Amino acid sequence: MAAHAKKPIQCRWTTQSGAFRHFATYAGPTQSQRHIKPLHWYVACRLVVEGGFRPSEIQPRPPFDIQKIGPRRFKLVTGAADGSEATILGGLKTKSVDVVVSKPGIGPVVAVSCKGITGAFRNLTNRMEEMIGECTNLHITYPALVLGYFFLVRGNPETETGANLTGELGPNDVALSASGGPNPAIARYHAALSKISGRRGIRDEVSAYEAATLVVVDPTKRNAGEIIPTEFPASESELGIKEFFQALYKRYDERFVHAAPELSRVTARLVWSSVPEGPWAGGNSELGYSERLDQAPPPSKFA
User: What is the 3-state secondary structure (H, E, C) of the chain?
Assistant: First the structure.
């Protein structure tokens, strides 16, 4: 009898700090992808809560449902979730993508590839080739697809070698020097991402992403998961998290809402009258962003 495939882990209501903390402290094998799954869930949840996309149109589906409470008024509530990934038809081959928004009758409109590296930074050269190939493959078939690349780096510090949660580190596993400067391989990767992101029009180069972000997180016990406040990436970098999501929303609206107003009933992003709340409500540092609200929500407790 053939073995049944394991059921994917369901998407969970995940905050930015929760996803980053898990990545920074995960000690198991990275081949399982368990170190990066919470990042998928965080992106999926953020596309709903901040982005206004319908939960039912996102894979993996985040744990929300929509209740209509009036003419063009919607309430976001807790609901069923799943952990399945979408498979997109590429120009060269099909590709499973970590987070995908698909619209009925249109197809995939937003996709985010989530990657991370915990050490062995010399291998980043291979990652550059992979990310360009993935982007080109998907844009050949879907030139209007808004494609993002979210990259996490475990910021193993030189001063903490062998003294953090991940065990002994080799020279190539150090991300930040004692002075705070990045491993040269990470600096080159950042420069490459800057050059192949920012695609604006559907006739532009298919090998470029619409948006990209590179985030360095702290793996030490005291500050696990916090974004390391170094001079890298620079504050004026276009690869910031906020800039990443705003670019995704802007490109999406330009291509699928403003350019086709007759389809706006399907494509327009929703605004929530209220969303499930928790200790992170109101866009504080735990959530990492602000909810897309049409008014201040009434007090409630997320269950």
Answer: CCCCCCCCCCCCCCCHHHHHHHHHHCCCCHHHCCCCHHHHHHHHHHHHHCCCCCHHHEECCCCEEEEEEECCEEEEEECCCCCCCEEEECCCCEEEECEEEEECCCEEEEEEEEEEECCCHHHHHHHHHHHHHHHHHHHHHCCCCEEEEEEEEECCEHHHCCCCCCCCCCHHHCCECCCCCECHHHHHHHHHHHHCECCCCCCCCCCCECEEEEEEECCCCCCCCCECCCCCCCCCCCCCHHHHHHHHHHHHHHHHHHCCHHHHHHHCCCCEEECCCCCCCCCCCCCCCCCCECCCCCCCCCC
